[in-house]
Automatic annotation (TrEMBL):
One of its GO terms (biological process) is cobalamin biosynthetic process. It is found in: Cell membrane. It is a multi-pass membrane protein. NCBIfam families: cobal_cbiB. Keywords: Cell membrane, Cobalamin biosynthesis, Membrane, Transmembrane, Transmembrane helix. This is Cobalamin biosynthesis protein CobD. The gene is cobD. Converts cobyric acid to cobinamide by the addition of aminopropanol on the F carboxylic group. Belongs to the CobD/CbiB family. GO terms for cellular component: plasma membrane.
């Protein structure tokens, strides 16, 4: 019991330090490690991807590319983790800071919400184009708010809660594994002629790593917003969405905010009819800021939960230590 209490207390302190670093420092302004990783992954892609290969061979090459891009860095993190008895503190906190994108997500969301609330549609369109892959030039105010809110809700899982889940489970190396896998899904996980087969492994592995975190994210949104509405939307609408993980996250998030998301959007010059998520009013700048608040409050909620467990384990260990033996 004492060992479990010590482990939980250390985990809480590392989580608090990593979250604080993300809140205070944010993402590096120059020489971001993910940018370097993207260049590294692109070099591996250029080396291994072949247009003339069969579909099966492209899938195998894609799996090999994923392995070469991700696993050496995770192995390095594990090696550094055990390099010195105290090294795990520095490695875990640094990797959690690297994996978390809470401050960046909030800043990008607010950069859309502020001009949208001020009526500057052109600026809002430009800024939302930084965080979504759909075409934004012709979006009206509601379309901009919808795109921004969906992005914040979905990336709340990809850039925050997924990283926290794998950190809690496997420490800094786990958070690193998740973040790199998610980055490769964003690079290769498209159903385009270029990546339909080569990127399949990246997409499938990201789906697997995201399955449980996505549902915990959806539950987090539900508990922090309109819970009944969020759970109902999750239950009835999530399965209609193309992504098995984004569906629960965005359906629960839309329900928690009591807004309606989804609907038609243009991707890569092609219109896509997407299912409706949530129910309620059309999204606006307030909805977008509400999504940011859900993510921020969720981070604090996860930290408080781990802290509460650590405290309960410490109390249980103290009581067990003070119990007289026959």
């Amino acid at each position: 019991m004492a060992a479990a209490a010590t482990f939980a207390a250390i985990l809480f302190l590392k989580l608090a330090a990593g979250m604080l670093a993300d809140r205070v420092l944010g993402d590096p302004r120059r020489f971001h490690p993910l940018a370097g990783f993207g260049c590294f992954a692109s070099a591996i892609e250029n080396l291994l991807r072949r247009e003339e290969s069969t579909a099966r061979m492209q899938q195998m090459r894609g799996l090999l590319a994923w392995t070469l891009a991700v696993l050496p860095w995770v192995a390095l993190a594990l090696w550094l983790h055990g390099l010195h008895p105290g090294a795990h503190w520095i490695v875990d906190i640094a990797l959690l800071w690297f994996a978390l994108g809470g401050r960046s997500l909030a800043e990008h969301g607010e950069a859309v919400a502020a001009p949208l609330a001020a009526g500057d549609l052109a600026a809002a369109r430009a800024r939302v184009g930084w965080i979504v892959s759909r075409e934004t030039a012709a979006l009206d105010a509601e379309g901009v708010a919808r795109a921004g809110t969906e992005s914040v809700l979905e990336n709340g899982n990809d850039a925050v809660f997924g990283a926290l889940f794998w950190f809690i489970l496997l420490g800094g190396p786990g958070a690193l594994l998740f973040r790199l896998a998610n980055t490769l899904d964003a690079m290769w996980g498209y159903r385009t002629p270029r990546y339909l087969h080569f990127g399949r492994a990246a997409a499938r592995l990201d789906d697997a790593l995201n399955w449980l975190p996505a549902r915990l994210t959806a539950l987090t949104y539900a508990l922090l917003g309109d819970t009944r509405n969020a759970l109902a939307c999750w239950r009835t609408q999530a399965a209609q969405w193309d992504s098995p993980n984004a569906g629960p996250v965005m359906a629960a998030g839309a329900g928690a905010l009591a807004v309606q998301l989804g609907g038609n959007a243009i991707y890569h010059g092609r219109a896509e009819a997407r299912p409706v998520l949530g129910c309620g009013a059309p999204p606006d700048a307030r909805s977008l800021r509400g999504a940011i608040r859900l993510v921020r409050r969720g981070m604090l909620g996860w930290l408080a939960l781990v802290g509460g467990i650590a405290l309960l384990l410490a109390l249980a260990a103290a009581l067990a230590g003070g119990t007289p033996h026959a």
